[in-house]
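Task card 7
Instruction: Convert sequence to structure tokens.
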Amino acid sequence: MKLVFLCAPSRLLSLFVFAALSLSAPAQQLGHYIGGFTGLDNGSSAPPGLYAAAFGLVEPINSIKGPNGNTVLRPDINVGGVIAAYSVVTPKKILGGDYALAFMVPVLNTRFTSNLFNASAESAGVSDILFEPIGLGWEKGRANYIASYAFYAPSGDFNPNSPLNPGLGFWEHQIQAGLTYNFDKKKLWNASGLTTWEINHSKSGLDVKPGPIFTGEYSFGRRFFKYQMNAGLVGFASQKLSADSGSGINPLLRGQVDRGFGAGGEWKYTDIKHKLAYDVRYEQQFGVQLRTSGQVLVFSVTFLDLLLPKPAK
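Output:
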């Protein structure tokens, strides 16, 4: 039994990372999705049912990288958030796959301090909400596949004149496709991959349009304890596909693109008796250019309310 919640989670913590970055150094425009938010089983869909989850995210930032990966500043940036997420996977079939829909509501907080500039700032509030009207999942032999479309609505407060904002101030389309493959007949050893494509609109009140972004996430793990636990290695690579555009772009960054990588580990456990699933994932960022660099910690608790009839005893 595979239990995965929301294979299209958001890069919502990056809302504050960009704002904090703008206080201290030239920064690229970030999208909503954060690399490292998914890992094990990210190419699988959950069984038909209703799911509700609470995500916790912590992203301590220890440096800001320049265009060649050099450290241009070592500020103290602490980004944290709580996200309420809801998902329904229906028995309805579309193109042979289970149909799902979901939405997520984030509440974020960030604190920025820099001894170099003797500056500090803090902001908190509801950020941009994610809606996923189309999610499809297939299972064939040892493989599972997913594909989805979602969009971010600029529901969070955004003031173009403020250094820190809960929202990013623009609409974004998000397309995802993923695969989970089991190497053995018992489906113990597994690997997965998820690709995310972000297509952004212009920022409200600014002549700035973030370029499209690609993020690829991968995992390799093994299941234990009668398939209730899955543990292994995870990682990601994120690359802006074309430069930001608009008259509001910093001349020093015009024509440049940012990137980042990360790797770490993950542990997942499903308590079938109490209908709860737990997940903890930690990744260290490296190879970063024109972004903040640090760690990513994601943990979640998911309530499982399966709609499938229970098997006869």
